[in-house]
Each structure stands twice: as C-alpha cells, then as structure tokens.
Amino acid sequence: MGAVFITGGSRGIGAACVRACAAAGWRVAFTYRESRAAAEQLAAETGAIALRADMADGAAVARAVTQAEQALGAIEAVICNAGIAEQKLFQDLTDADWQRMLEVDLLGAVRTIRAALPGMLHRKRGSIVTVSSIWGQTGASCESHYAASKAALIGLTRSLALELGPSGIRVNCVAPGVIDTDMNAVHSAEIRAALAADTPLGRLGTASEVADSIVYLCSSRSSFVTGQVLGVTGGF
Ligand code: NAD
What we know:
This protein has helices at residues 12-23, 36-46, 58-72, 95-123, 134-138, 144-164, 189-198, 207-218, and strands at 3-6, 27-32, 49-52, 75-80, 126-131, 169-176, 229-232. By secondary structure, it is of the alpha/beta class. It has a 7-stranded parallel sheet with strand order 3-2-1-4-5-6-7, with helices on both faces.
C-alpha cells in the first residue's frame, strides 16, 4: 500500500477516508482549509499528515501535493473530496456564487489531479477518485450550481479514464446520496426525515460507508475498474 492524498480531510467524508485509508495500511496526507485543530487531532489519531490548502488556490494545492510526496513518497492514489454546497434559487445566484462553487467543487479537483499526475504518469500507475453527488446525476432544485459542478466532475472522471487508461492510471467517481455529515446539518429535522424516507434503505448514509467505497476504488481490489460512477445512495 502506497501513499494517498485526500482533499478536505478534516471532517465528514474526507475524515472518514483518512481513517479508512490509514486502517487499510495507506500512508495518508490530507488537506484542510481552516480547521487546524481538527486536522491536527485527526493526524495524531491516524498517523496521517495534515497540510493546509484552499482548493481555490492552485499554488497552495500544488505545494501540498509536493509536501506530501516529500514526506510520504510516491502518491499512488488521490481522493478529490473537498467540496462546498449551497441552497439558492437559480435567479438569486450571482456570477460570484457560480465562480466560488466551480473553483472549489470542480477546479479544486482539476488542480489536485494536475499536481499529482506527473508522478503517476512517470510510474504508469495510480488511482484517482472524485467525489461527485447523486445531484450531479439527477439535477437538484435550488442547487443548480452545485449539481452542475458535480455533473462536470463526472464528465472529468470519464474523460480522464479514457485519456489516462493507456498510462495505467484508473479514474473513478463516487456519487453519494444523502449522507449524515455537517454538509446536511443545515437541514431541519423534518427535511432530514423526509430525505431518509425517500431513501429505499430508510436512513441517511454514514461518512464511513462512503469512505469504504472510495478505499475500494483506490485499492488494487478494483484493478480492472475505471471510468465508473459508483452510487453510494441507499438506493435513492
Ligand atoms: P463537509 O462539509 O463535512 O466537508 C467538506 C470538506 O471540504 C471539509 O473538510 C472542508 O474543509 C473541505 N473544503 C470545503 N471548501 C474547501 C476549500 N475551499 N478548500 C479546501 N477544502 C475545502 O461535507 P461532506 O459531506 O463530508 O462532503 C464531502 C464531499 O462529498 C463533498 O465534495 C460533497 O459535495 C460530497 N457529497 C456529500 C454528500 C452529503 O450528503 N454529505 C452527498 C453527496 C456528495
């Protein structure tokens, strides 16, 4: 098991990925934006290294990947998890709202992959996992910029799977349904109950259930899987 680079690892699905990858024997580097205390605590708990990088800052992302390679050796897997969500009517969304969403949810992944790719191309080996959303597949009312960014991530994933497959690099996507993290803490108890009721398995998913699928896609157990979008949705 080599080194894995995870974006947005200080909480939620990213933190679950840090824990699951460390438990599976990966050497782990993860980024955080602001939550230094939480990141340092998670690093101490798992033996991972925590690196500060805002996904909207290309130089910071590239620097974090270089620091991870220097500390842990060749990066064998990348998990593009960092993301933001926002609920607004389409007609209330400004250019700035669209730009912020695309900067983090789409270009953050682009920048991370671009920084980690030279090493993977050199070794002709690697696994990249993007974290989209079921809303990127179905569309989402009052979240058009989020859904559009997440749909774009699926296009990016499938395109890179075609482009990088001949170089031995696999690229897959996980599309979670409604997962019980801080991202959904904005919803009222009624809305969360309605979302659970709309989910065939009758509940929200957990961050670690998403992380387990991501770890599978990073690992050699999925060595003939590329260009796929794996729904972790409870059947939603
Ligand atoms: P979360 O809000 O708990 O965590 C998001 C993470 O992204 C945090 O660690 C945060 O620091 C990081 N992040 C946000 N903006 C950043 C920036 N500019 N630079 C660096 N890091 C930044 O949310 P989560 O539920 O753990 O979501 C993780 C991923 O899963 C996101 O991409 C999200 O869109 C996706 N997702 C979540 C759900 C869900 O129901 N929770 C469903 C589908 C997809």
